[in-house]
Specification:
The complex is a heterodimer.
Chain A (H helix, E strand, L loop, with lengths): L1 H6 L8 H23 L17 H8 L2 H11 L9 H12 L16 H5 L15 E2 L4 E9 L3 E5 L2 E4 H5 L4 H10 L11 E4 L2 E4 H5 L15 H13 L6 H10 L9 H17 L29 E9 L7 E3 L4 E9 L8 H6 L3 H4 L2 E8 L2 E8 L6 E4 L20 E4 L10 E3 L4 E6 L2
Antiparallel strand pairs in A: 2-7, 3-4, 5-6, 8-15, 9-10, 9-13, 9-14, 10-11, 12-15
Helix pairs in contact in A: 10-12
Chain B lengths: L1 E9 L3 E2 L6 E2 L4 E4 L1
Antiparallel strand pairs in B: 2-4
The chains are: A alpha+beta, B mainly beta.
Chain lengths: 438, 32
């Protein structure tokens, strides 16, 4: 073998096959280009439909199994760590990602896994709440902020995405129902009822004295007064709707059933949100507000005269505290869960990947605050694919299985959370939920 | 992860933070 290896002469000559292969590739490519030029998508009216192909890195990143990676990351970080290792491991994580260990609620050995440490709570009092109308919902960095013009939200300078893509478009039936429900945001007189534990109170009763008369600027008693009012109401026979009133006549005074304390507290909180913060009730009643200021619903996203739509984007780094709180006193009326990709949402990515926030998995919480529409959208990312909303036990994000077409969402409404407000009421900086690993 | 806030407010609403600034829960972000 060695002799033949050494003695056999080597003769080099060009392989014609490579040339042929190159020729084939060139012909194929030319055919493709010609086809693409010819290919015109037209819809039924013969109008050309332009299909956006999107930037190449969306396809490259989209080809990665980001969701599986995310779930694997979450699974790995759910392993229970030995107690002796926890302080060292979490201190290393804190050092690597800049966490402030002095603020966390428990000692490091109490967290069984990195996933639990990631979803840690803070000590009470380490985050004083400002009394401004809008406070930060989370620890992080302001990525971008500004006003929204023509329903376009600016992602970063020069890159925009549509508000409808972010929040989801109201289904025509919803909009129709809303307009029927609030044709001109008419204020309901105080005959509106709040049904508590089977007992009905009129709004006038609930809000105390002049609650029924909605002349703007009427003195609004402090919330404590209205909550006292509520407790005193609980003992007085409530006015109730016609059917049960008839029954009362037959049986004399209705025996007053004291709503239990928690319902009373809930009612007091809702009443104070209506009075103190001026959030309109389910049917648009907002005492002390000039008529045009009252909004019974929040899905109509165009601002009224004298108002504008604003946005702000807050990026939470891996080392930040990852629970989010309510940025103001508002009522969440519905949520829309968009199953999407789990691209990284780091500032680097946000500058390069157009439409990042409408591609990623996210939960659009829609509602209203004292000035009208209010929306908050936690957006997931590769390492934190799970979005938790404390008052929505049914919400599951980053689940296995077939992805629905982009832009579709499943929706839940929170109308049962509060009859008076037709949604889940949240006060300033109240904890709402958070992001979990995986 | 990221949180996007979209809200309606009077024209004289002003942000008191700017892009790139670090914020904490409860910190003032804007006022009317």
């Amino acid at each position: 073998i060695i002799a033949s290896w050494n003695e056999t002469p080597i003769k080099w000559y060009p392989l014609p096959i490579a040339v042929g292969a190159l020729l084939l590739v060139a012909i194929q490519y030319r055919k493709k280009v010609r086809q693409a030029q010819k290919e015109v998508h037209v819809d039924e009216h013969g109008i050309e439909v332009v299909k956006l192909k999107g930037p190449w890195h969306v396809h490259v990143l989209g080809a990665l199994p980001l969701r599986n990676l995310s779930r694997l990351w979450g699974y790995v970080n759910s392993f229970e760590l030995p107690v002796w290792f926890r302080p060292y491991g979490f201190k290393f994580y804190a050092f690597a990602f800049g966490c402030n260990l002095d603020e966390i609620e428990q000692d490091l050995t109490a967290y069984r896994s990195l996933g639990e440490f990631f979803y840690r709570k803070l000590k009470p009092g380490v985050r004083p709440v400002d009394d401004a109308v809008l406070v930060s919902p989370a620890d992080g960095t302001i990525l971008h902020l500004g006003t929204i013009t023509d329903s376009k939200v600016e992602q970063v300078k020069g890159i925009t995405y549509s508000l409808d893509a972010l929040l989801g478009v109201d289904r025509p039936s919803t909009v129709k129902a809303i307009v029927e429900h609030n044709p001109d945001m008419e204020v309901v007189d105080d005959q509106e009822f709040a049904n508590v534990n089977g007992i009905e109170y009129t709004l006038g009763q609930l809000l105390g004295g002049n609650g029924g008369n909605s002349s703007p600027g009427s003195a609004t008693p402090s919330p404590s007064a209205s909550s006292d009012r509520v407790s005193s109401l609980a003992s007085s026979p409530p006015m109730s709707s016609s059917t049960s009133a008839k029954k009362n006549e037959d049986e004399g005074d209705a025996s007053v059933v004291e709503p239990n304390a928690s319902i009373q507290d809930t009612l007091a909180r809702d009443v104070s949100l209506v009075k103190q913060v001026g959030i309109s009730t389910a049917k648009g009643f907002a005492p002390g507000k000039p008529k045009h200021e009252r909004r019974g619903s929040s899905y109509i996203k165009n601002a009224r005269p004298g108002h504008s739509l604003f946005f702000s984007v807050i990026y939470l780094a891996p080392g930040d505290y990852h629970r989010f709180h309510s940025p103001t006193a508002w009522v969440v009326e519905k949520r829309r869960h968009f199953v999407g990709e789990l691209f990284s949402v780091s500032p680097w990515m946000a500058k390069r990947l157009e439409g990042l926030f409408v591609l990623n998995e996210r939960v659009s919480l829609l509602g209203r605050w004292r000035y009208g529409f209010f929306g908050m959208v936690p957006v997931g990312a590769t390492n934190v694919g799970s979005i938790v909303v404390n008052f929505d036990q049914n919400l599951r994000t980053n689940v296995r299985g077939r992805k629905p077409p982009p832009g579709t969402y499943n929706e839940a409404v929170y109308s049962s959370a509060s009859k008076l407000l037709n949604g889940q009421p949240l006060t300033h900086a109240q904890e709402m939920g958070g992001f979990k690993l995986g | 992860s990221t949180i996007v806030l979209v809200f309606e407010a009077p024209d004289d609403f002003e942000f008191t933070v700017r892009a790139g600034q670090k914020v904490k829960v409860g910190q003032k972000m804007g006022d009317v």
